[in-house]
From TrEMBL:
PANTHER family reported for this sequence: UPF0702 TRANSMEMBRANE PROTEIN YCAP, UPF0702 TRANSMEMBRANE PROTEIN YDFR
Species in which this protein is naturally found: Bacillus safensis
Chief place where the protein resides: membrane
Name recorded for this polypeptide: YetF C-terminal domain-containing protein
Phylogenetic placement of the source organism: Bacteria, Bacillati, Bacillota, Bacilli, Bacillales
Homology family: Belongs to the UPF0702 family.
Keyword Cell membrane: yes
Cited InterPro entries: DUF421, UPF0702_alpha/beta_dom_sf
GO CC annotations, alphabetized: plasma membrane
Domain spans labelled YetF C-terminal: 3-51
């Protein structure tokens, strides 16, 4: 399917991969979708599991883990 769509844009698979690599994407399977913009650039959306974690998300996760560890520690102290 991707080759058929690339043919419409006159891009080869290798050219497509090269353009993605220039944007830091090394594996096509990480993409949810890609588009060819009017200016010739490739726009893309990563699959949810491939998206980088933000600092805010990491802090929230660490806070959640700390809270769970504190609750676990308190339960063992009560025994």
């Amino acid at each position: 399917m991707i080759d058929h769509k690339l043919k419409k844009t006159r891009l080869t698979r290798d050219e497509f991969k090269m353009r993605l690599k220039q944007q830091g994407i090394t594996d096509i399977s990480c993409l949810k979708k890609a588009t060819l913009e009017a200016n010739g650039q490739i726009g893309y959306e990563l699959k949810p599991e491939e998206k980088p974690v933000t600092v805010k998300q990491m802090k929230e996760l660490l806070d959640q883990l700390r809270e769970e560890l504190n609750l676990s520690k308190k339960r063992t102290e009560c025994r």
